[in-house]
Amino acid sequence: MEQINKSKVFLAACMALIVTSMTFAIRAGILTQLGEDFGITNQELGWINSMAFLGFPLAMLLGGLLFNSLGAKKLLIVAFVCHLLGLVLTIFAGGFWTLIISTFFIGFANGSVEAACNPMIADMYTNNRTAMLNKFHVWFPGGLVIGSLVSKFMTDGGLNWQLQIATMLIPTAIYGFLIFTQKFPQSENIESNTSSNIKALANPLFLFMMVCMTLTATSEFIPQQWIETILGSSGASPMLVLALVTGIMALGRFFAGPIIHRLNPIGVLLMSAIITATAIYFMSVADGSMIYVAAALFALGVCYFWPTMIGFISEYTPKTGALGMSLVGGAGMFATSIWNPIIGSRLDAEKESAIASGLVGKVAEVAAGKAVLGFMVYFPVALIVLFGILFVIRKKIEEKRVNQAAAH
């Protein structure tokens, strides 16, 4: 690995992840404008949005299967080309179908980034996998903060949505330049035989964690997706809540190393589930400024879920290789895309029953939002039970773990 500049390769991965999360934040910020400009209904906007969640797991599945033969560099080139295509097509979109296609490209690019970078980082930092994956995933909330602020200031300044999309071409160009100019490492520390990876998927621990990932991703992403609708009417500023949540998540992931070494991944996951369940319940009953406290607690709860789940797969079921990491991430995103419309329709139903019981306007919206959050508590509560089982049998599981350095 002499000629490989690990820090520059890691920087390329982080820049690609910033683009990924900015696409989520800016698209959320411009949805209303898109609807008005093209005369698109909310349902059609929902379909456009779902393309990002469909392209993502599809790219992760294909990327996971092809990682061993293509390598991280080629997958990142695919991501770069798809980001470029998706962004340019969005800027010049003429209506519903161009937006459907461009959003699919962006989703596919986002999934390709995860499929390329997670196994590459696990391989480059083999004695420090979960901590470094957390450090890489700092840039998901980091990019959300950047994207939300860009969108807010540009919208407030009366700048059109095409310009907001164009801002993402800058970090895209930077990571493209880094990919083409850097030498990438060969897989040396992960199982890189695809048929061995496929056989290892039958491991009961892997299948158990796939189920858990559908619950951790839903617990993290759904409240974030609906935070504006649910909290916007309750006197809290949705943008401030989002900035607070994502800021705390970025800090938590950045300093994940010592916590993971102290508690180990199973302990971290159990602790996260307990905090998340408490926070979502707290959000469903809190009022006024206490909503910010509940949101901060929620951020602490969910911040370790995604990277620690992927790190867990690479450390405890190492034979599943890049495929295992990609499938688990894909399962998380796929579950989110299924639950999103269900939660949306539940929100509508709760609002109707709130109005039927005599509540009006914003009061009805707040009541509906809180009822939905009350239902969302069941996801992390199920995780407390599942991770609790893992915690009880952790000594047996530790024997299969890839050796990790004691301190970093």
UniProtKB/TrEMBL annotation:
It is a multi-pass membrane protein. Residues 9-400 form the Major facilitator superfamily (MFS) profile domain. The keyword rRNA-binding does not apply. This is Predicted arabinose efflux permease, MFS family. GO terms for molecular function: transmembrane transporter activity. The keyword Transferase does not apply. PANTHER family: BYPASS OF STOP CODON PROTEIN 6 (PTHR23514:SF3). GO terms for cellular component: endomembrane system; membrane. Its main location: membrane. Keywords: Membrane, Transmembrane, Transmembrane helix, Transport. It comes from the Bacteria. Belongs to the major facilitator superfamily. InterPro entries: MFS, MFS_dom, MFS_trans_sf, MFS_Transporter. Pfam families: MFS_1. The chain crosses the membrane at residues 47-68, 75-93, 161-180, 200-218, 230-251, 263-284, 290-313, 320-339, 371-393. It comes from Cellulophaga baltica. PROSITE patterns: MFS. It is found in: Endomembrane system.
